[in-house]
Amino acid sequence: MIAAFLAAATAFVAADELPGIDTDALTSMIRRELHLPDDSAWDAAFVQHIGYCSHYDHETGASRWPLPAVATAHDLTTIARQHDLARTEPRAGDVFAVWSPVSRRFVRSGIIASVEACLVGPTRTTYECVTLEGDLNERADGRGPLVRRVRRSLSPHSGDCFIRWVDALDDREQVRMAA
Predict the structure, then answer these.
(1) How far apart are CA 80 and CA 174, in angstroms?
(2) Domain locations in the chain?
(3) Residue 28's closest CA among 15, 8, 10, 46?
(4) What span, in angstroms and rounded, lies between the C-alpha atoms of 112 and 47?
(5) pLDDT, tens digit (0-9, with 9 covering 90-100), for 81-139
(6) What's the CA gap between 25 and 53, in Å, rounded?
(7) DSSP 164
(8) For residues 126 and 155, is the Cβ–Cβ distance under 8 A?
(9) CB within 8 A of 68, min separation 6: which ones?
(10) pTM (2 decimals)?
């Protein structure tokens, strides 16, 4: 399950470099799946798209992806906390959400591809991760039409959250109904 999730997300990384790929059409499709306006952030919609597609069962005609379709990292984290899926230590395959102390909400989400290091300091622990993220520009430092692999420092002490969606597979009906 986690391998399929990561493989599906990885397939989108640098897709803009392939001949014939229209990244604007791709991002529009992902936004439409959640009925988002064309100018809205689509990082959480990317996570939803990858989860739904990587867990789609052709025999039943349904996806086993346990998380509900939500438009923002903040909504995704709210549901994860309601269903005890929020964790303070990341694993490959987790969904992450970045906390903004200025906005006082979660402002970005993506997928943990790997955890490279755990840096423990006197007052905080920081995880150096490789992530797979949508809604990025070419340099991966602002919003845009691309999916990129990013090296990111994440810390539960800064409010960042890790969503262990795989723990919801047995409870997927309760999680979906909550949305």
Answers:
(1) 12
(2) 2-178
(3) 46
(4) 11
(5) 999 999 999 999 999 999 999 999 999 999 999 999 999 999 999 999 999 999 998 88
(6) 17
(7) -
(8) yes
(9) 79, 175, 176, 178, 179
(10) 0.91
Q: What is the dihedral of CA 167, 171, 177, 179, to 10 degrees?
A: -10
> If you search the block for the tokens 């998380």, which residue do you land on?
67
Amino acid at the residue 139: R
For 177, list phi and psi in degrees, rounded to 5.
-70, -25
Residue 76 has pLDDT above 80, yes or no: yes
Instruction: Enter the tokens of residue 121.
Output: 């300091």
User: Distance of alpha carbon 178 from its chain centroid, rounded?
Assistant: 19
Q: What is the DSSP string of 11-49?
A: HHTTGGGSTT--HHHHHHHHHHHTT--TTS--HHHHHHH
Please calculate the CA angle 156-162-164 and round it to the nearest 5 degrees.
Answer: 145
* Alpha carbon distance 125, 23 (integer Å): 36
b/e map of 166-175 (b: 16 or more CB within 10 Å)? eebeeebeeb
